[in-house]
Design a protein that fits this description.
six-stranded parallel sheet; alpha/beta; Rossmann fold; eight-stranded mixed sheet
Length: about 425
């Protein structure tokens, strides 16, 4: 007997992001592109007619439980362990987070059509809740243990690889940001293409747009005459900021070039290892240090720079590259992950094959050495970035949700 089941139109979805809160300033602690993605994709999906609740762990004692981040889009904080716990310390509190989420949903009388899990820490929570509710589950990894360990000397928690494999095989659909990530997921987990959905992110084009370089430098107290290279992100080895410090002595005009690093916080002592390196190489006076700032303030840094540099060892999405290009500033980046497809080499910036500081210095000089090349690359970058809207990203995410729902229904039919 065949039972006819069709998914009803989606009204509300639950996103689970245990450690990544959309309200945290990117570049601080463990906040980065995923936090921005959640903050921008949720309202964009809600604007398309599907309400979104993002469940995350409380990270400030006594803070508000619910934040409205747009019409029908909310961030819901749940208590699970000390608010100040770092990412790796959250693992023992995942069962508590799950119970808090179930209690909140029951107390509020909420109903969802799908659960979307973000990052490996959210996987077990999202999948068990989706199973309990009888709903399809979608997974976004953002980063993968195998790739991080392959591209850096840092080791990941031993539970992570097994958790990611379980998420990949247990999900109704796995989201990838790029075709490159789709191939990685296929190779790592053997997932067939029909169970992977490519859904790129976006950039806020109303916020990130070309502005006056001179006026921005005046606001930031930067020289109008120096050549400025910008790094934005967590000052950790995986992002490669040390590559840029090592590149400075190899640049043609080191004495007139300034590297501006934006990320981290003084309380974390994020820059200590980089300050020591700059002093050892004799370029400390050519480096400026700024703590992470909200995106509304970050626009001045993009406007003030000549080029943005991203020597990352991997980037699933490459949000900083899109923000820089939307601001009219070309990007010099490692040819890895999403960066290899976002940046058009020789047009909107340069792609560097390896992480050799000399190669980065050469590619940065290639653009900085010619005002005409700098202007042309900036103009092309703006045009290129305009294709990455959050409205488009939401449409592609919703297409994926419908695919996941149909697949879930088909399997339900077969089981009967």
């Amino acid at each position: 007997m065949t039972i006819s089941i069709t998914p009803s139109p989606m009204k509300r979805i639950a996103m689970v992001s245990v450690h990544g809160c959309p309200m945290v300033t990117p570049g601080m602690r463990f906040a980065g592109g995923m936090n921005v993605y959640l903050r921008d994709i949720a309202p964009a999906i809600a604007a398309a007619g599907v309400a979104v609740d993002v469940y995350t762990r409380s990270h400030h004692a006594g803070g508000p439980e619910i934040f409205e981040i747009g019409p029908n889009a909310r961030v819901i904080h749940l208590r699970a362990g000390n608010p100040e716990l770092v990412k790796s310390e959250v693992i023992p509190y995942l069962p508590e987070f799950r119970e808090r989420m179930l209690e909140f949903v029951e107390r509020q009388g909420l109903e969802y059509d799908l659960v979307h899990s973000h990052y490996w820490l959210s996987g077990s929570v999202a999948q068990s809740i989706a199973a309990q509710w009888g709903l399809p589950v979608v997974v976004s990894f953002h980063t993968l243990a195998a790739i991080k360990e392959r591209e850096s000397s840092e080791s990941e928690p031993e539970q992570r690889s097994a958790a990611e494999a379980q998420m990949a095989h247990g999900a109704d659909l796995v989201f990838a940001f790029t075709d490159d990530e789709r191939r990685e997921l296929n190779e790592l987990f053997g997932i067939e293409d029909e169970r992977i959905h490519v859904a790129p992110g976006g950039v806020d084009l109303s916020l990130f747009q070309p502005m006056s370089k001179l006026e921005a430098r005046k606001r930031l107290g930067l020289s109008p005459n120096e050549k400025i290279v910008l790094f934005v992100g967590r000052p950790e080895p995986f992002k490669g900021p040390d590559v840029l410090i090592r590149a400075l002595p190899h640049m043609r005009d080191t004495a007139n070039t300034r590297l501006v690093l934006v990320g981290g916080s003084e309380g974390e002592h994020s820059f200590d290892w980089l300050r020591l390196l700059a002093a050892e190489l004799g370029v400390a006076e050519r480096v400026s240090w700024h703590v992470a700032v909200p995106q509304e303030q970050l626009i001045d840094f993009y406007a003030a720079t000549d080029i943005t540099a991203m020597p990352s060892f991997h980037e699933s999405f490459g949000l900083v590259a899109l923000e820089s290009m939307a601001s009219g500033r070309p990007v010099v980046a490692s040819a890895v992950g999403a960066l290899a497809t976002q940046i058009v080499d020789g047009q909107t910036g340069r792609l560097v094959a390896a992480h050799d500081p000399v190669d980065f210095a050469y590619c940065m000089d290639d653009i900085l050495g010619s005002p005409r090349a700098l202007q042309s690359a900036g103009e092309k970058a703006v045009i290129h970035a305009r294709a990455f809207t959050w409205t488009r990203a939401a449409e592609q995410a919703l297409q994926g949700y419908l695919r996941a729902a149909h697949g879930f229904v088909e399997r339900a039919q077969l089981s009967h």
